[in-house]
Design brief:
The complex is a heterodimer of chains A (206) and B (75). With 206 residues, chain A is of the alpha+beta class. Chain A has helices spanning 11-22, 60-74, 100-103, 108-122, 138-160, 171-180; strands at residues 3-8, 29-35, 50-56, 79-85, 89-96, 130-135, 163-165, 187-192, 199-204. Chain A has 3 domains: 3-56, no CATH class; 60-136, GMP Synthetase, Chain A, domain 3 (2-Layer Sandwich), CATH 3.30.300.20; 140-204, 2-Layer Sandwich (Ribosomal Protein S8, Chain: A, domain 1), CATH 3.30.1370. A 3-stranded antiparallel β-sheet of chain A has the order 1-3-2, with helices on one face. In chain A, strands 4-5-6 form a 3-stranded mixed β-sheet, covered by helices on one side. Chain A starts with a strand and ends with a strand. In chain B, strands 1-2-3 form a 3-stranded mixed β-sheet, with helices on one face. The relative contact order of chain B is 0.24. The two termini of chain B are 17 Å apart. Chain B is built from 3 helices and 3 strands, in the order αββααβ. Helices cover 44% and strands 25% of the residues of chain B. The longest helix of chain B has 17 residues, at 50-66. Chain B has one domain: K homology (KH) domain (GMP Synthetase, Chain A, domain 3, 2-Layer Sandwich), CATH 3.30.300.20. The chains are: A alpha+beta (206), B alpha+beta (75). Chains A and B meet through helix 2 and helix 4 of A and helix 1 and helix 3 of B.
Chain lengths: 206, 75
């Protein structure tokens, strides 16, 4: 963890110095007062400067990489963690050999890991940020599969003139189905049930 | 396996120093008993056990390679 010690006539002045030195803002650090300033007589004799230590918080990205590497280490798999932050979310892409075990059936292991990382990283300070884990384009492939499934089942609903009930999915996957069929003239989509068993229903428009 | 569960639990709780995992070896399965501070119980279980389920999923994925069934119990 990065830290810096600074002195000044007042605590505030010392903190300001340290912040500009590290070029970070006040909410990114913890401040520890090492020595309080004393005025002394006539403002100069025996006066003592303030001494403080400024400790920079770990950034969310650093925290994520550290935690994931710790986890993979204990799973005895070697994974390269690439991280990319945008205003909406932190995108984490994992690369390595045989990462199938990290994806799991229909991505359930990847989703579980993503959920844990989200909780762990957002536990610390105020600002919440979504973390999205991806393994070598798995999310994109899954999205495409779900879109194809949606189109196929919409056709089936049209043929049968009835409703098609899909299997339970998480909110992200349900949204992919809804979005895929949004403009479809033949069917409506809606969700039914409670998480984690909530499922999409594709319904023929009469 | 034990260490993996420790890492996961410590990441989730407010008092990582109180996290304890003990192993009970069975014939076909390995039972991992997870202990956390009473205030942190919610952080490892979650609403309707959602967090506990996620933790179990990750531990199970790691266990597949060792060909052993791993059971995580929170006590």
């Amino acid at each position: 963890m990065k830290s810096v010690v600074a002195t000044g006539r007042t605590i505030e002045e010392a903190v300001e110095k340290a912040l500009s030195n590290l070029s970070v803002s006040r909410d990114q650090v913890d401040v520890e007062v090492l020595e309080k300033p004393t005025r002394g007589f006539f403002g100069f004799i025996g006066s003592k400067t303030a001494k403080i230590e400024v400790i920079v918080h770990k950034s969310k990205c650093d925290h994520i990489v550290e935690l994931l590497q710790d986890i993979f280490n204990k799973m005895y798999i070697s994974v390269t963690v690439n991280i990319d932050e945008d205003p909406d979310a932190i995108h984490v892409n994992l690369e390595g050999e045989n990462l199938g075990i990290l994806i799991g059936r229909r991505g359930q292991t990847l989703d579980a890991l993503q959920y844990i990382v989200n909780l762990a990283v957002n536990k610390v300070d105020g600002e919440r940020k979504r973390v999205i884990l991806n393994i070598e384009g798995y999310r994109e492939r899954r999205e495409e599969t779900l879109q194809q499934l949606a189109f196929k089942l919409a056709e089936k609903a049209k043929r049968k003139h009835g409703d098609i009930v899909l299997e339970p999915m998480n909110s992200h996957e349900r949204r992919i189905i809804h979005t895929a069929l949004q403009g479809n003239p033949n069917v409506n989509t809606y969700s039914e049930g409670e998480d984690p068993y909530r499922k999409v229903i594709i319904s023929y428009k009469k | 396996m034990k260490e993996l569960l420790e890492v996961l639990a410590k990441a989730l709780v407010d008092q990582p120093e109180a996290v304890e995992v003990s192993e009970v070896e069975g014939e076909k399965s390995l039972i991992l008993e997870l202990k956390v501070a009473p205030e942190d119980m919610g952080k490892v279980i979650g609403k309707q056990g959602r967090i506990a389920k996620a933790v179990r999923t990750v531990v199970k994925a790691a266990a597949v390679r060792e060909g052993k069934k791993v059971i995580v119990e929170i006590i």
